[in-house]
Amino acid sequence: MMDDFYCVVTFHTTQGALAFENVFKETSFSIKLMPVPRQISSSCGLSARVSCKEKENILKICKDNELEIDDFHKIVKKKEKSWFLNHIKKTTQDNE
Predict the structure, then answer these.
(1) What total of structural domains would you count in the chain?
(2) Which H or E element spans position 44?
(3) Domain residues for 52?
(4) pLDDT tens by residue, 52-94
(5) Per residue in 70-84, is it b (16+ CB within 10 Å) or e — as a string?
(6) Which of 45, 79, 81, 88 has its CA 20 to 30 A from that of 64?
(7) Is the pTM of this model over 0.70?
(8) CA–CA separation, 77 vs 37, rounded Å?
(9) Domain of life of the organism in this record (predicted)?
(10) CA angle 16, 67, 13 (to 5 degrees)
(11) What is the CATH number of the domain that holds 17?
């Protein structure tokens, strides 16, 4: 089953995001730089998708390596139905 959430780290600057990526390339943590999700805002347009379970370890590595981050966010995925499914539901209800 897929999680209905994921976590991202945001940064004050692009330079901060790139430094974060460089440090974490040397670890066993899986991170991926990506645009900042629409649900949040940040000074920088980049964020890093990370494991929510590893928050404390990630924050410790940031502190140990003097990495400047903006914040750690948990993003809840919206469960939106597609136009097609909504259309079928409406059509079915109209025919009842």
Answers:
(1) 1
(2) none
(3) 5-94
(4) 999 999 999 999 999 999 999 998 876 655 555 555 555 555 5
(5) bebbebeeeeeeeee
(6) 45
(7) yes
(8) 11
(9) Bacteria
(10) 20
(11) 3.30.70
